[in-house]
Amino acid sequence: MSAIPSNSDPRLEAAAASDDSIQRVHAGLLHTKPEPEPGGYALAPLLLLGLMSGLILGCCIFFVQNRGAFDPLVYNGHLNTKPGEGPVVLPPEQIIAKGKSLYAQTCIQCHMADGKGVPGKYPPLAGSDIVNGSEDRVIRILLHGLKDPITLNGATFTTSEKMPPFGPGMPGGLYNYSDAKISYVLSYVRSDFGNKSALVEESKVTEVHKQVAARTTSWTMSELPASP
Ligand code: HEC
To answer: Which mutation among 122, 163, 170 tests ligand 1's pocket best, with the greatest number of atoms within 8 A of CB?
Structure first.
């Protein structure tokens, strides 16, 4: 135990003396800055905290409102529009690419990757005279869906399955596609699977959509305009 210094250790006395002087210096310093009252808050940091929280909240609200459901197909009006003009039409290869990606998300599960459908259940889009026929008719089918037996390529196609509505505002509708999306996916199915029909412009979808905006049920074949 000889390692512990005794009280008479001269080094300890020196340290204690300097300790005292340190204490005095500290005491002096402590008086220059008043201690905050217990439980009291300084006003300035509180105001700053409020401002920063408001700013962060504001950013979150802006972000949530403008996130476009993180959909890469959401139309960006700032990107493509010049004053006085409507949306600029995308180049055909971009329209087809967007349509192809929509097809892969939805249509593919019934009409299949090769567009040939499932015999007796889901009709083919490949070589279909509905797909390649009147735009007025096929746009209506995409907007509101189709039920009951159909005439396809001159033959009756019966199935208990229905073609779901892809447009907005249909009771039980799942997809709520914009006119642009409908034009993309239709343009795609009219130019793949061996089909070689013209692309469907967004303005054409909008025109047809206006004519049938009030509709809330799926079409039957006899209600639809015949192909020219
Ligand atoms: C849940 C299955 C299902 C999905 C998903 C689906 N369809 Fe259909 N589709 C059908 C059925 C069933 C019919 C036939 C309805 C009938 O006979 O009344 C049909 C008919 C059609 C027709 C008319 C008949 C033909 O073969 O030309 C077109 C065009 C069409 N679908 C396009 C599409 C496109 C484009 C998509 C994706 C955006 C799509 N469908 C998604 C089931 C589906």
So the answer is: 163
For ligand 1, atom 18: residue with the closest CA: 147
**Closest ligand 1 atom to the C-alpha of 186?**
35
Ligand 1 in contact with 130 (CB < 6 A)? yes
56-58-61 Cα angle (round to 5):
110
Identify whether the C-beta of residue 126 lies closer than 8 Å to the C-beta of residue 193: yes
Which range has the worst mean pLDDT, 13-17, 25-29, 51-55, 163-167?
Answer: 13-17
* pLDDT tens profile 119-148: 999 999 999 999 999 999 999 999 999 999
